[in-house]
UniProtKB/TrEMBL annotation:
Name of one Pfam family that matches: SUFBD_core
NCBIfam families tied to this protein: sufD (TIGR01981)
Coiled-coil stretches noted in the UniProt entry, renumbered to this chain: none
SUPFAM superfamilies cross-referenced by the UniProt entry: Stabilizer of iron transporter SufD (SSF101960)
A single BP term in Gene Ontology: iron-sulfur cluster assembly
Record-given protein name: Fe-S cluster assembly protein SufD
Family: Belongs to the iron-sulfur cluster assembly SufBD family.
Domain SUF system FeS cluster assembly SufBD core: 138-358
Highest taxon of source: Bacteria
Organism: Cryobacterium algoritolerans
């Protein structure tokens, strides 16, 4: 969206337009009201790489914002409950930058609130599996109280047409891992924006794992708002024929001595498999002592696939520890395959070993042994299905 002027840039002297382009990632227009956004055309910066015609019901149509079935096991120090739109935490972590997100915000009746307290380590899984085939909007709040510690797994299965917002709020010195696990059915469409704000000396590990669904778009936006705050954003995705898997990541360093690491890795196989990764990092003028690095790696397994990878870095202060970004997309390393085959391993098995090793870097950092084992098996199943008999 245009604005009246930024960084000393003003409108051209001919005066015909009255606007200049947005110059800083954090200055994008936001609103919780869907009516404030124009129709989605696919030419917008946030939609230009997305198949927008395939989910117009989520961007322009009416959404079912009612409560839905949720499964979870009771864990000490964790509360899972539905709260009204007047809950004070709603809107404290961020606001929509695009129409699908705003449509969900305008439509939900109650928000699912997951509240974590207590210094003892704990793990909880919240599962959604019965969202139906109609267009739906939803809202989730995740609050980690000061000094709390937990691993939270958000598991998504079955069929759905869903647009939603997830707010993640970390109090002082909280340590939280959030795993967003997409194992949707073959026709599912899922558009979700995760907004996180991290307090003083708090640490968020945010993991996105996408293995299922027709169109899945998970966009994490993290604001490091407290001094000494830390975030690690990890992503793993495996796109099969016809799948569109997208991630747009934004890390906003707004406080001094903050740290971020972003690592997303994906594999693509089959005709029409498509992945999109956009990584934006903004180091603000008040973020002295920032230490930041982002990277994206894609492994192309077959012909007919496409991987878009776009890292961006903005720095508004020279007083930083370090900042950088990297991106790479490529096929199998022939030398690795040759080495394995020279040891008596078949070509198909060698390829599976290379892919497992490539993606295991992400799986092994989750911190939940049971989930890590299950994901390794899921990756193996993906590779086995694609290997000729």
């Amino acid at each position: 969206m245009p604005t009246a002027g930024q960084h000393g840039i003003t409108e051209h002297s001919d005066g015909r337009f009255g606007y200049v382009p947005v110059q800083t990632r954090s200055d994008r227009f936001t609103s919780v009201n869907v009516a404030d956004f124009g129709p989605v055309t696919g030419r917008e910066a946030v939609w230009k790489l997305s198949p927008v015609k395939k989910f117009t019901d989520l961007t322009t149509g009416a959404l079912d914002g009612s409560q839905y079935p949720v499964e979870s096991i009771s864990v000490a120090g964790v509360s899972v409950a539905w709260v009204g739109r007047g809950d004070s935490r709603i809107g404290s972590a961020g606001a929509p930058e695009e129409r699908a997100s705003a449509n969900a915000w305008s439509s939900f009746e109650k928000a699912l609130a997951i509240t974590i307290s207590g210094e003892e380590a704990k793990e909880i899984t919240v599962t959604r599996a019965q969202l139906g085939s109609g267009p739906r909007g939803a809202h989730t709040i995740i609050e980690a109280k000061p000094f709390s510690r937990a691993i939270l797994i958000l598991s998504n299965t079955g069929e759905a047409r869903l647009t939603e917002n997830v707010e993640i709020i970390l109090g002082e010195s909280a340590n939280l891992t959030v795993v967003s696990l997409q194992e949707w059915g073959d026709t599912a469409v899922h558009l979700t924006n995760h907004f996180a704000t991290i307090g003083r000396d708090a640490r968020l590990k945010h993991v996105v794992v996408t293995l299922g669904g027709s169109i899945v778009r998970v966009n994490p936006s993290v604001r490091l708002s407290g001094a000494g705050s830390d975030t690690e954003l990890l992503g793993l995705y495996f796109a099969d024929a016809g799948q569109h898997l997208e991630q747009q990541v934004f890390v906003n360093h707004a406080a001094p001595n903050s740290r971020s690491r972003v690592t997303y890795k994906g594999a693509l196989q089959g005709q029409g498999a498509r992945t999109v990764w956009i990584g934006d990092v903004l180091i603000g003028r008040d973020a002295a002592g920032t230490d930041s690095y982002e990277q994206n790696r894609n492994l192309v397994l077959t012909e007919g696939t496409r991987a878009d990878s776009i890292p961006n870095l903005e720095i508004e202060t020279g007083d930083i520890k370090g900042a950088g970004h990297a991106s790479a997309t490529g096929r199998f390393d022939d030398e690795q395959l040759f080495y394995l085959q020279s040891r008596g391993i078949t070509e198909d098995e060698a390829r599976r070993l290379v892919v497992r090793g490539f993606l295991s870097e992400i799986v092994q950092q989750i911190g939940s042994p049971v989930l890590e084992e299950r994901l390794q098996a899921a990756i193996e199943a993906e590779l086995t299905e694609s290997t000729p008999a």
